[in-house]
Amino acid sequence: MSAAIQFLETRGSDLVTAVLVHLQFVVVSVGIGFVMAMLLAIMLSRLPAKVSAVALPVLGVFQTVPGLVFIGILFMYTGIRPLTVIIALSIYALFPILKNSYAGILSVPEAMKEAARGCGMTDLQILCKVELPLAMSSIFAGVRMSTIYTVSWAVLAAMIGLGGLGQFIFIGIETNNQVLILGGAIPAAILAVALAMLIDFVQDKLTPRGMKGRKP
Amino acid sequence: MIDTARVLQHLHLVLVASFATTIIGVALGVLTYLSALLRPVILWIADILQTIPVLALLGLVMVFFGPTATTVIIGIVLYSLLPVVRNCYVGLEGINPALKEAARGMGMTKLQALLWVELPLALPIIFAGIRIAVVTSIGIAVFGNVVGGGGLGATLTNAIRTQNMPVLLWGTLSLMVMAIVFDTAMGFVEKRLKSRNT
Prior knowledge:
The complex is a heterodimer of chains A (216) and B (198). Chain A has 216 residues and is mostly helical. Helix content of chain A is 81%, strand content 0%. In chain A, helix 4 packs across helix 6 (123-153), helix 6 (123-153) packs antiparallel against helix 8 (178-206) and helix 7 runs antiparallel to helix 8 (178-206). The longest helix of chain A has 45 residues, at 2-46. The longest helix of chain B has 33 residues, at 165-197. Chain B has 198 residues and is mostly helical. The mean pLDDT of chain B is 88. Chain B contains eight helices and no strands. The interface between A and B is medium-sized, with 33 and 35 residues.
């Protein structure tokens, strides 16, 4: 316990900076990943099923490339810049959101789209007012998952010296100092849980009252 | 190009860890199913373990077990427990109650019903969880070298440090192949298990 207090006394301000840097990496990457994933998901849902039957497994294969390698290779080209980390993290954040959004949009019953068209809605209106709201719980599940992963992956930013909570963890591992490792691990876990709760809250606010408690 | 010893080391880490994950995960899953008291506790712990960054988890385990393969294996097990525990619980919970009733009605004890009726019926779902755990652990084992556990992570880190592109690519490729082979093979078994049950 006293070790924890000492850690907070000596490293407190470093910790705050690290949490903010970490948060920044996560929010920016998940944001970019989310926009790209939504665009891709909407596009794929409009194309014939054959396209996504090929595209999704191919993307899945890329997901098996370890983050370490991805950041390592990017780093050779883009150097020690936050951009390197953000590109890598955005791409990792993209997969779960894309998969879930695509499945969510496809699961909207044909009859509902038909009904919307019958009401005189345009394609864009059907997308925004029928398909996306109905796919919302599935989309949010994807965002939640990828946010939790990204908090974990952002630790790798410290591998190329870009700070974040990973710096405590790396130094802690190198010097066999468990206080430092915990000093990085506990805030990271809290950050992941807090962001997940925030996403649940936003989802609750955005879901129309009539759809609450409905399973997709 | 790629050190075969490293590949074997990697496979060794993954296989030992997956074996342990399966046994511990199924045991915990059954416990979750049987005890309403332990259910939220176990699921919560397994959930929280996933939010801890892999590197931090490995670092913490290293404090107790030193820079060895054991550390990496324990880290992988802790990190990949969730899908096995959850699928085991969901699989057991989802069995048609009439079948459970029938098993008891035939005079089976609770244990017999669990071993001969419930677990076999839940097997496809449990196996799906093990599949996720195995594929994830291939990726986690890459971090093994940070805590001195070897594996392909060592090859990759060296290649990054020396900017040796061919080795980096070959190392990555072997990891991808490993993940795809395991995923496809286990997916095939999963499909067979599913069709056997219906």
